[in-house]
UniProtKB/TrEMBL annotation:
It holds the Pfam family Abhydrolase_6. GO terms for molecular function: hydrolase activity. Belongs to the AB hydrolase superfamily. Keywords: Hydrolase. Residues 32-277 form the AB hydrolase-1 domain. This is AB hydrolase-1 domain-containing protein. InterPro entries: AB_hydrolase_1, AB_hydrolase_fold.
Length: 286
């Protein structure tokens, strides 16, 4: 396993290379770049990377807002730059920078949740760096409007952001259960505990800034600009991203749609074998 030292002030940190041609210049091996979502870190992929790395080069990293980055000190003790991360643009620029620094492209990019749209924006900026986009549980807009149903009313988002700002730990504890979902099986409990640890470990100011960027953004116009081939991956019951959002993205991007037969927003924790099965099917078409 190789580790890339972070560049100063980089928002994508602690990049790691697993399997495939890690550390080599063999361009025949498919490189899969896995980007975690809000409340996670690269460990969210731990259940699927062992299988994927048997035949592919896997690269994972932590976004600067993650609990892992804060714990290691990558985030330093400076205040989180809320203005910089008030939209996905900064994340997209840092994703491009990461791919360039590591000389990875063109990659198969897997973006979970918010990172899916980050990947879309980055691919519009630099399509040459991306071979295929896999958007796992992603959404271009979470707010409902007259012509679009993102899943959340404006009042619900205002309450959510207010709770992050005023009672972060309690909000994170409850929100983790909503995000992971599923029955009260051992797998669901373990997945919820794991996601909750990442969510509560974020610095509150980072959680609020990125939460605003996510839940108040409207990136629908980006979808039609994406030229890189794309597959939308969705569970059959996601409280954060309804199925009709995935179908909307499929239509706007002329993308393929794959459904993971499980509940929740974090299937890589709930049903990793099913996720690997879907990813391998996608990779077989790339």
């Amino acid at each position: 396993m190789g580790v890339l030292e972070k560049a100063p002030a980089a928002g994508a940190v602690n990049a790691r290379v697993l399997g495939g041609s890690a550390g080599d210049d063999d361009n025949t091996t498919t490189t899969i770049l896995l980007a975690h979502g809000y409340g996670g870190d690269q460990s969210v992929w731990d259940y699927i990377t062992p299988q994927l790395s048997e035949s592919h080069r896997i690269v994972t990293f932590d976004w600067i807002f993650s609990a892992a980055a804060a714990t290691r000190g990558d985030a330093d003790d400076a205040p989180f730059d809320a203005e910089k991360y008030s939209s996905y643009e900064a994340f997209a620029d840092e994703l491009v920078s990461l791919i360039e620094r590591m000389d990875l492209g063109p990659v198969v990019f897997v973006g979970h949740s918010m990172s899916g749209m980050v990947g879309c924006i980055a691919s519009v900026k630099r399509p040459d760096l991306f071979r295929h986009l896999v958007l796992l549980g992603s959404s271009p807009r979470y707010l409902n409007s007259e012509d679009y149903k993102g899943g959340f009313e404006e009042s619900e988002v205002k309450t959510l952001l207010h709770n992050i700002e005023t009672n972060f730990k309690a909000w994170a504890h409850d929100f983790a259960s909503v995000v992971v979902a599923g029955a009260h099986s051992a797998a669901a409990v373990a997945a919820t505990d794991r996601y909750r640890a990442g969510l509560t470990g974020m610095r509150p100011e980072a959680a609020l800034a990125v939460g605003r960027a996510i839940f108040l953004s409207d990136n629908r116009a980006v979808l039609g600009l994406v030229e890189v081939p794309c597959t939308v991956v969705q569970t059959n019951a996601d409280a954060v991203v309804p199925m009709h959002v995935a179908e909307y993205m499929q239509g706007e991007m002329k993308a393929a749609l794959e459904v993971v037969d499980c509940e929740g927003h974090v299937p890589q924790l709930m049903a990793p074998d099913l996720v690997v099965e879907v990813f391998e099917r996608i990779l077989g078409r790339v």
